[in-house]
Amino acid sequence: MKNVAIVGYGNLGKACERAALLSEDMSIVGIFSRRKGLSSPYGTSIYAQDEIFDMAKDIDVAALCLGSANDLVAFGTSLAGKVNTVDSFDTHAKMRDYVQNMRASASAGGKLSLVGIGWDPGIFSLCRALFEGVLPDGFTHTFWGKGVSQGHSEALRRIDGVLDAIQYTVPKQEAIDLATKGKGEELTERDKHLRVCYIAAKEGADLKKIEESVRTMPNYFEPYDVEIHFVDVQTLKREHGGMPHGGQVLRSGYANGKGCTMKLELKLDSNPDFTAGVLMRYAAACARLNEEGVCGAKTMLDVPVSALYQNDAALRFV
Amino acid sequence: MKNVAIVGYGNLGKACERAALLSEDMSIVGIFSRRKGLSSPYGTSIYAQDEIFDMAKDIDVAALCLGSANDLVAFGTSLAGKVNTVDSFDTHAKMRDYVQNMRASASAGGKLSLVGIGWDPGIFSLCRALFEGVLPDGFTHTFWGKGVSQGHSEALRRIDGVLDAIQYTVPKQEAIDLATKGKGEELTERDKHLRVCYIAAKEGADLKKIEESVRTMPNYFEPYDVEIHFVDVQTLKREHGGMPHGGQVLRSGYANGKGCTMKLELKLDSNPDFTAGVLMRYAAACARLNEEGVCGAKTMLDVPVSALYQNDAALRFV
Closest approach of chain A CAs to the CA of B251, in angstroms? Predict the structure, then answer.
């Protein structure tokens, strides 16, 4: 039985709580949050975030479910080395720095931190590396969706006059078909994904102006084809309240000149619930690996898949 | 630069030779075969199989490409511990014994043997373990094909009156659809795959008798729906001379009660060329890991994907 702490109590933290409660090999020590006045529908104890440092000796592994990448970097590097940690840090561009900082802290304290655990980064990263590793002559494309992008939905909500909004990332089938045929080299961001927005505007808001703000928003929407639907807030909640996501990693190439395609595809009714499941299973592995003497910081690529199982149990899959 | 030996010179050994010649980080020490009078179209030196023992000190890793599982077990366990080895041992039922024997030999000699490297066993095994590891509540199905099964083609060729034959394993779309929806629990072998045979019969052979022999052959054909086409030998060579294969690992299940499907799919124009590519990349990793002090016997599940890369190069995929 592993004693798990959950740090942060947003969508991911709540999904981790449900996953840990359903796991036969886990017991929740507590939820640690900076927000005050929270309560758990399952009666899990909730502590102030910094209390985790005093409780470190009772915790086998902590799942870091902090909302912003900045919060995660700051808290993760301060906690690493004191407690084993897992997180789903997802800022691809800052991954290398983060791993190096976590490695230093975790190694110094003789603990293990698994970083970037989830599906992207995570399972998708693992498959990108595996596919290119075994099929060096080729191209890899990642397609996301159809699914809700929290970051893009947030960006819409910050626009003046917007009451609430949801953004779906939708991969374009023509691009998937080209990539499958090995002809996807020249595909642009615009070619690969469509951004579909459902927006509930405030009463009296200027819809033309909202639309203009969306279409011209740099990085988020400007480089893409964008579809905008204005809906009332009840419709938004009723029809777009879930958090489905998914996507595929597609590699097309040649082995000794002979064509090969390799594809990993996920379809998830709930992004946070699936991510939490992955995080919790790697949390159990993290605690076991550290008991065996493994320390430092590792990504999913550095952890053998057999570490998800005890003893030689993974042999049954071979 | 790694010095590679190739043991066995059938389809897989020949494909490994081509893959090694195309690899910038490999040099072929030689091909080792029990058959006499062989020559390589690329001028690679060919030695008697047992000469590998005398040349062990010049070899960083040996790829064992022996045709039969019995040959592989006998030779593999005698060579393990003297040279690092990789193989694509594929008798699922005997994998556990094989791993344990190889582990004992390899560990005693301070060498590393990677076993069951290819796509099934191999990449498919890795995905079966990963998918179940992160999504414990669900069912996994493996579908093979459309592709040529060497074993089933050989079984056809052994029938009295058969001159030559090719057998395609074809997954049934209805079964894939059911499995995708999480309803595949009760699928039988017959529901999942169709066996399509192209047979060139000897002159004057009794076709009815051949057909009867195929349909009633235990294990190979009896448990399946079988389609039989008699063709002349020229048609067989012209239209069925390739060795395409592929398949998919499909897991359908629930994370916190929310639906998830995970799928890995391969489509390969040439089974031996793709398998050889996988084997050669894991051969390079095997040699590097042993230099770092890793010894024993491991499956693909025990080797982190980052081992396919040097230093922190795998971080770019995260």
Answer: 10
